[in-house]
Amino acid sequence: MQQQGGASCLFSRIAGVPRVVFRNPPTSAFAFAKEINVKPLSSRGRGAAASGVRTPPAAPRAAAFSAVFRRFFSESSANTRAAESLASNSDYLAAESLKKAQESRGNGSVDAGADAALSTAKERGKQDLVRSSRVFKKRLPPNFVSETFIPHLEDQIIHMAPSFSVVQLGEVGAAYGRLPATLREKEVEKVLLKHLRENLKHVHTPEEVLAVVSLMELFFSGDAAAAADGQQQQQQQQQQQRSWLPALKRRSSGVETDLFLQLQQKLQQETGLLPGLSLLNLFSVIRCYSKALAVPAAFTQQQQQQLQQFLQTLREKADLLLHSHRPEELVAIVASIATYGTAALPQQQQQQQQQQQGGSSIGSLVSRNPHMAVLPHVLQQVDIHLKLDNFSFFQIFQLLHLLQKCSIKHKLLLEECIYFLHNGSYSPKQQQQQQLLRQHLQQQQQLLQQQLLQQQLQQQQRHERAQQQRQEQHQQLQPGEQQQDQQQQQQQQQQQQQQQQQQQQDPLKVDTAKLAQMDPAEASEFIKALGQRIRSKGLLQQQQQQQQPQQQQQQQPQQQQQQQQRSVAEGLPPSLLVKIAWCLNQLGEFERVERVLEKPILRAAAKFGAVEFARLVQTLPPGAPVLDLICSRLAATIPQMRLFDFLFFVVGAAKLGCLYTPELRKTAAAAAATAAAGNALLLRPAAAAADLRTLVENHFMEKKEEITLSQVGHLERVFKQIAPSQQHAQDLLLLLPPDLLQQLQQQQQQHQRHHRHRQQQQQQQTDTPAAPTGEAA
């Protein structure tokens, strides 16, 4: 289980990162991790069946590599802890230092500080791990991932696939499918297909259905095969022209029809599979089948009609589920679409943030990103609940913010949010329209209830059949025993009815006249008995439930008056206040809410952190005095800041113009003045800007060991976007440590060289003519 989880985890990390950096200690087997010319697996003895996978030629090397990766999988699984890996690394470094010290003592060349070095070897090992993640003596070659590491993982998948369950096959296949098409091997896809066919009969849970659907959508629905064969299309055309039997060569569609038909039968026959799928799961199944049906000549006409009818039933069920969802459930669905759908978009489309309006533009967005196919249907239900005033203000803003992540500008939500901020209540709506919408929702809920009733009737029929079988078994018993059983059941029912009537009739009343005539001992016994009766029958809870509606009716007018007296923005927390301003600024509607949010932002200036400061710098006009107040307050806390907060503060201060040198600060202030020419706010020079620059430089040097190269690269891109000129950008880059900048430049150069090398290899493959089929034979 650890190896299977480790394989899927490693593939998902490799798919997102071009180069892998290992944090595990080196072993003797990693001496073979060099640039080697690899051959197919068919050259090996024990794996001749799995041909086409790139592995090293020698069997001893392969055995050593498999042993290393077994250890690597067990150490990098989810059950291990970071402390164990740190301990193993430090122990390894300590052992190496001891060996070197012993060798030097044997030779007679022992230094004076050898004992001190041995005592601090463990601490040095931990410090080296914090400074850099490399524990190898030599750097790995640039093609280590593509030529050595991924082939060995493919070898592990091929040999361990028989032990995978259906869910594990889905996890490993989903992680492997994230790799580019040029790094994937068809042999692994064949192995996954083989074991998927074998295990499809044993699918009995919704989780297994989703694992099967994910594999089918990635590899066997036509898109993956077309992407993998895209680079070899020219070679295939040349071979078809030169071949003497071109008519016998037919290109496959890449769709495994038997899998789709078997899964359809499985979902229709077993009663517990479809009801266990949620709305998003149903849309994933619909998306997978619609992709396969879009491929031409993949199914026969009869199969197409059969699958289209099946899809129609799934769509109807999805529509009914949509109408039955409550407002908070719709918010959760939109949140899941925004998190996973925007992650599937390229970075360029995320940076552009083109706000979409109208149904046609949403359709184009869905065509670019199929993960958002359910979004138009969900937005229809959002509009209905919004017109019925079923959303609270926080839900309205949450939906607006989530849709802004999806690059969608929803007009109804925007207008409702702005009206709520100004007036503290919902916007006026037509009563006739609300009645029609309520009737529509009631009809859809009635249809869903009818389906549920039909399912309950089926279950009752099964239960009745089971009872009939039991009665037939009871009839074989003696009639006297049956009469006794019936009498006992009737007595139990009568006792239950009497207890229920007593609980309903007995009120919590006490005769005060009798209680006054009692002695102290009798009164104490009476109170104890009364307490036992209250606990046993729950009479106190009944009285509390009867008094609650009256208290709520008395409190409602008071709460309404309090809400009308104060604005909605005044009661918001500082973080939410800044998020509202930032979101409306991204949508281009901040000017409509600027007066409402001005006073709350001024009152909460002492509570804003570094993240809120960076967002406010992007939102408010450049001359707002609140920004200087927050910047000066946060500058005093720079030595105590975390690295995460410090980076946000640096971005905000750079945007504000407080980190430039005195000469460049004048030009930056002039540019800001031209930007805020039509604004009533006056520009203020940043207080103690020179001291702030020195503080930032010193803190960067202190945190140099914790800063990663990815963070430095992100800061470089942000500085270039923020700075008004290239000279200002270079001035901001001087704040960063020079060593990190040099390492970043070297890494960028290596990426460029590797990219050029890959392009040259692809051009050579396309330029070389394909050999005729007769010669190849």
Can you walk through the features of this model?
With 777 residues, this protein is mostly helical. Among the domains are: 2-164, no CATH class; 325-428 and 566-602, no CATH class; 608-736, no CATH class. It contains 36 helices and two strands. The chain has helices at 2-16, 59-75, 82-107, 114-119, 121-131, 144-160, 166-177, 186-199, 206-219, 223-228, 233-242, 257-269, 279-294, 301-324, 327-344, 347-352, 359-368, 375-387, 393-405, 411-423, 431-475, 479-505, 512-517, 520-537, 539-565, 574-586, 594-603, 610-619, 625-635, 643-656, 662-675, 689-702, 709-722, 726-733, 738-767, 773-776, and strands at 39-40, 54-55. The protein has a two-stranded antiparallel sheet with strand order 1-2. The chain starts with a helix and ends with a helix.
Outline of the structure:
With 777 residues, the chain is mostly helical. The protein has helices at 2-16, 59-75, 82-107, 114-119, 121-131, 144-160, 166-177, 186-199, 206-219, 223-228, 233-242, 257-269, 279-294, 301-324, 327-344, 347-352, 359-368, 375-387, 393-405, 411-423, 431-475, 479-505, 512-517, 520-537, 539-565, 574-586, 594-603, 610-619, 625-635, 643-656, 662-675, 689-702, 709-722, 726-733, 738-767, 773-776, and strands at residues 39-40, 54-55. A two-stranded antiparallel sheet has the order 1-2.
